[in-house]
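Lecture notes, unit on binding sites. The following record was shown on slide 14. It pairs a sequence with nicotinamide-adenine-dinucleotide.
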Amino acid sequence: MSYNLLKGKRGIIFGALDENSIAWKTAERVFEEGGSFVLTNAPVAMRMGAINTLAEKTNSQVIPADATSLEDLENLVEKATEILGGKLDFVLHSIGMSVNVRKGRHYTDLNYDWSQKGWDVSALSFHKTMQVLYKKGAMNEWGSVVALTYMAAQRVFPDYNDMADNKAYLESIARSFGYFFGKDHKVRVNTISQSPTPTTAGKGVKGFDGFIDYADKMSPLGNATAAECADYTITLFSDLTKKVTLQNLYHDGGFSNMGVSQFVMEKFMEE
Ligand SMILES: NC(=O)c1ccc[n+]([C@@H]2O[C@H](COP(=O)([O-])OP(=O)(O)OC[C@H]3O[C@@H](n4cnc5c(N)ncnc54)[C@H](O)[C@@H]3O)[C@@H](O)[C@H]2O)c1
């Protein structure tokens, strides 16, 4: 169902890799709600080519940008405002990658060059993106910036590895930058803390299948899907949430406030 919530709004969507990506689902929903946008991803991710299918479906253009490169981000923001014909109303940062996770390096044996790379891609890129937007005055008043995060920033999930630290940093940037963006430009900044979701990034985490099932059985409403995350993001881009800022918002079927569920207890009591 569509409500025209984003009619006339313009934005940038980072991170649509394939049709499972949270950013992909969000782009489809933003389009349905009447928003227009530029899609972007790292140049290496373009090689898969899937993003062009999404661009066609949503009447949008693709501008490659490595989110760790200020030069790429400056070019992206300039081109996006040119193509879309004005300042931006929404930005989705849906980017995450840990080299240590990818290469199976244990948290107690980190390769720090890889940690730095993962931190730059997963966390600092959010600051870089906002700094470019802020300095260029590229956001309209009452614009909305959203990044995706995971609860391993607050609680221990051993296999989430150094991504837990990256997410804690990302959430902190949302608050720190959100203060200045709010005060100076009336732009809101929030993170959505999403349930485990079967995407390329999600499935890269060791033991993901057990992990996603456990979260589902712990949550009174079950895990939130990527499509549901897209719906939630739409509300944050809309004018219905104008005074929500500096928040880390759990979108997880209730998981974050659970101690134990009956289902999990029963499973535990089985012989
Ligand atoms: N899948 C989950 O279980 C889950 C749960 C909570 C939060 N998240 C977060 O959601 C966000 C989106 O991930 P997803 O699950 O849709 O997976 P995904 O693999 O589809 O998306 C990750 C994206 O990051 C992009 N990326 C990597 N390096 C980049 C760079 N240098 N510059 C620009 N883009 C780059 C990838 O190309 C990809 O499109 C991430 O921040 C992830 O941590 C995912």
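Take-home: The chain has eleven helices and seven strands.
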